[in-house]
Amino acid sequence: MTASTTSADPAVADHDGRRFVVGLGGTLRAGSSTERALRHCLAAVERQGGRTALFCGEDINLPMYNPHDPDRTPRAVALIEALRRADAVVIGSPGYHGGISGLVKNALDYIEDLRGDPTVYLDNKPLGCITCAYGWQAAVGTLGQLRAIGHALRAWPTPLGVPINSADPIWDAEGNLSDDTVAAQLELLATQVLTFAPAGGVRA
Predict the structure, then answer these.
(1) Residue 89: beta bridge partners?
(2) What number of other Cβ atoms are within 10 A of residue 148's Cβ?
(3) 127 — phi, psi (to 5°)?
(4) Residue among 91, 160, 84 at smallest CA distance from 122
(5) Which of 88, 86, 163, 95 is nearest to 129 (CA)?
(6) How buried is residue 72: exposed, middle or buried, by Cβ count under 10 Å (0-12/13-18/19+)?
(7) Cβ atoms of 50 and 194 closer than 8 Å
(8) Are 54 and 33 in contact (CB under 8 A)?
(9) Strands 99-100 vs 162-165: parallel, antiparallel or unpaired
């Protein structure tokens, strides 16, 4: 698990009353546009009083999900336990050939392990969606797919989803977000995720 702007151990967050938001996504390339957008959104969540954990890159480089094999790697267990406790989730995916990446989809498939929980899948949890692609068509199309998957997982996709056109100069030479419009959208996404999350902090 990778923390966002500050150290965020989900176990510590269980009873501190702050909403716990899990970010999931990115690519296997460290510092990808999708990962940076996720980090920016989770940093906004923390500035607004939430607690976060980010699973990206190698954190979600998991074996292909097999519902008939109960064995889980430590990375898979950490992801599922964080999602189980999450009050809200933010998913970020690159747009590969018009759709979400296999890496992200496979990580989401592990949510099937929550089918027998009192809170099935992501039932009633707000879901923020971020996509990055080299062109608006793939970015917007992939966003629609993420929202559809969120509905299938019984989550509530936030009114705002953030598609990012990586062909535009979004990031500066140091990798910081330089587009004010995208920055405002990611900030608003963080606000909506926290606003729609249930009161009372992290679920047991």
Answers:
(1) 22, 127
(2) 11
(3) -130, 115
(4) 84
(5) 163
(6) middle
(7) yes
(8) no
(9) unpaired
Q: How many residues does the chain have?
A: 204
Please report, in tens digits, the pLDDT of each residue of the chain (204 residues total): 654 433 334 444 455 789 999 999 999 998 899 999 999 999 999 999 999 999 999 999 999 999 999 999 999 999 999 999 999 999 999 999 989 999 999 999 999 999 999 999 999 999 999 999 999 999 999 999 999 999 999 999 999 999 999 999 998 888 889 999 999 999 999 999 999 997 655 443
The owner of tokens 């606003």 is 195
User: Is the alpha carbon torsion for 8, 11, 16, 18 positive or negative?
Assistant: positive
Q: What are phi and psi of 54, to 5 degrees?
A: -115, 130
